[in-house]
Amino acid sequence: MRKMTKANLEAAFAGESQAHMKYLIFAAEAEKEGFPKVARLFRAIAYAEQVHATNHLRTLGGVGESPANLQAAIDGETFEVDEMYPAYKAVAELQEEKAAVRSTHYALEAEKVHAGMYQKARQAVLAGKDVEVGDIYICDVCGWTVEGEAPDRCPICGATRDKFRKF
């Protein structure tokens, strides 16, 4: 693939991915405000944006078999933990942006867990097995992730057990 086409598809993938997430966030807000049909519209179009992003990523060769996909996820999470979020948090601290410090701290702590979970899954897949995983709980406030049982309080943000979503 030529450089300009590749760069364009990478930019399109990023844009469609952001639109997908933004519209899901907007849908949740519309739902809270009592506009269920607006929420449905946002969710429907968010799905269309996901289809676009999927097509772009496949065209770029970014979707492989599970071991490669899991390694890509491990690499992404590790980059976020080792480089991206520490740098972003340092800048936010330097600029005294308290909400940004909190947001980047929450993400950093959650990404540490995610990398380990993906590593466990990759090892299982390489052995020809599906991963053994119990219930997964995600804190709605900070995104911290735990397998098994939700804690009484989130160790990262202090949210109570009722703020955890079960997967």
Written overview of the protein:
There is one protein chain. The protein has about 170 residues and is mainly α. The chain has 3 domains: about 5-60, Up-down Bundle (Ferritin); about 65-130; about 135-165, Single Sheet (Rubrerythrin, domain 2), CATH 2.20.28. It is about 65% helix and about 5% strand. A hairpin with a 5-residue loop joins strand 1 (about 135-140) and strand 2 (about 145). The radius of gyration is 18 Å and the shape is globular.
Helix-strand blueprint:
Blueprint (H helix, E strand, L loop, with lengths): L2 H30 L3 H24 L6 H29 L3 H29 L9 E4 L5 E3 L16 E3 L1
Antiparallel strand pairs: 1-2, 1-3
Helix pairs in contact: 1-2, 3-4
